[in-house]
Amino acid sequence: MSAVRTVLGDVRPERLGVCDAHDHLFLRSPQLPGQELQDATAARAELDAFRAAGGSAVVQWTPYGMGRRAADLPPLSRACGVHLVCATGLHQAAHYAPESLDALRGGPAELFVAELTEGIGTSGVRAGLIKVAGGFHALDAHARWTMTAAAEAHHATGAPIAVHLEVGTGALDVLDLLCGESGVPPYRVILGHLNRSPDPLLHRQAAEAGCWLAFDGPSRAHHATDWRMPDAMRALAEAGFGHRLLLGGDTVVAGARSVDGGPGMPYLLRRVRPRLALALGEELVERVLTDNPGRAFAVDWR
C-alpha cells in the first residue's frame, strides 16, 4: 500500500492534508553560524502557528549531520497535531566538517537505507525521503557522489529524492544523473527552489521529464525572483503540469521563524496561498497543497 512515511508511522496520502512540502524545524550548519534552528520550544510554537493557519503536514528536508533532532519530532507531531516527515541524505560539502564526511567514504547509500527502513540513530524515527543537493549550474564530485548513493537507496527502498538546486540552477544536470545514468523514475525526483531561477524553458523541460517541481522558499523576501513565482506556476499549469507542482516555505534560520518576527511557516498559507489563488485559481492551489504532496511523498515501501 502506498503511504507517506511520517515520524509517527506510515500515513495514507489522502490523509496528509495541507502540506508545506519543504521546510525545516531544526537545522544547523557552519555556513549559518549563530542562526541555528535548535530550540524545541520555538519549533513547537512555529508548528502551532502553522496549524492555526490551516496547515496539517510539514516535510522537513534537513538531512544527515545537520541537526535534525529526530527524537524530538514525534512528540512535536503529537502535541501540535501536524504530520512530520523527516529526511535522510546529505547536503553540499560546505555544510559539514570534513571529518564527518570522511566517516561515510565507504558509501552513504547504506546509511540512507538504514535511516529509511530501520530508523535514525536510536530515535526509532524512520526517514521518509532522501535529500541531496546540486551546485551552481553544475554538479561537483560531492554532488555526484551523494546523488549516486541516493539513487542506490531509492532502488532499495522506493524513497523519493528531494534535490536542493543551488539558486534554482542545474536541474537538467540533476535529471541526467539521477534519471538518465542512475535509472531513478522521474516521478520519484523532486526539484527544489525552481522559484529562484525563473527560467520558463528550463521549468518546461523539467516538467516534461516527469519530475516534481517545487517552488519552495517564498518566505525569503530578499530573492528578487519571488514576485515571478505566480506567473511561473501559472505557465506550467496552463501547459498541463499543475499536477506536478509543490509549495514550501524553507525556513532555514531562527530569525525567519514567525515566532521570532519573520514570515515563517504560516506565511505560506497566510500570504502566498491567496496570492497564488489569484493567479492559478483556488481549486488548483488547493490541489498543489494537498493532493500533490500526498502523491509526491507516498511510496510503496520496500
TrEMBL record:
Residues where N6-carboxylysine occurs?
A: K131
Checking Pfam families in the record gives: PTE
The free-text note explaining how the cofactor binds reads: Binds 2 divalent metal cations per subunit.
GO MF terms, alphabetically ordered: hydrolase activity; zinc ion binding
Task: Kindly list the positions annotated as binding Zn(2+) 2.
Answer: K131, H164, H193
Report residues binding Zn(2+) 1: H22, H24, K131, D250
Write out the entry's keywords from A to Z: Hydrolase, Metal-binding
UniProt-listed SUPFAM superfamilies:
Metallo-dependent hydrolases
InterPro entries to which the protein is assigned, alphabetical: Metal_Hydrolase (IPR032466), Phosphotriesterase (IPR001559)
Cofactor(s) essential for the protein: a divalent metal cation
Q: Which residues form a coiled coil?
A: none
Taxonomically, the superkingdom here is Bacteria
Matching entries from PANTHER family are given as: PHOSPHOTRIESTERASE-RELATED, PHOSPHOTRIESTERASE-RELATED PROTEIN
Q: Which family does it belong to?
A: Belongs to the metallo-dependent hydrolases superfamily. Phosphotriesterase family.
Task: Return the protein name.
Answer: Phosphotriesterase
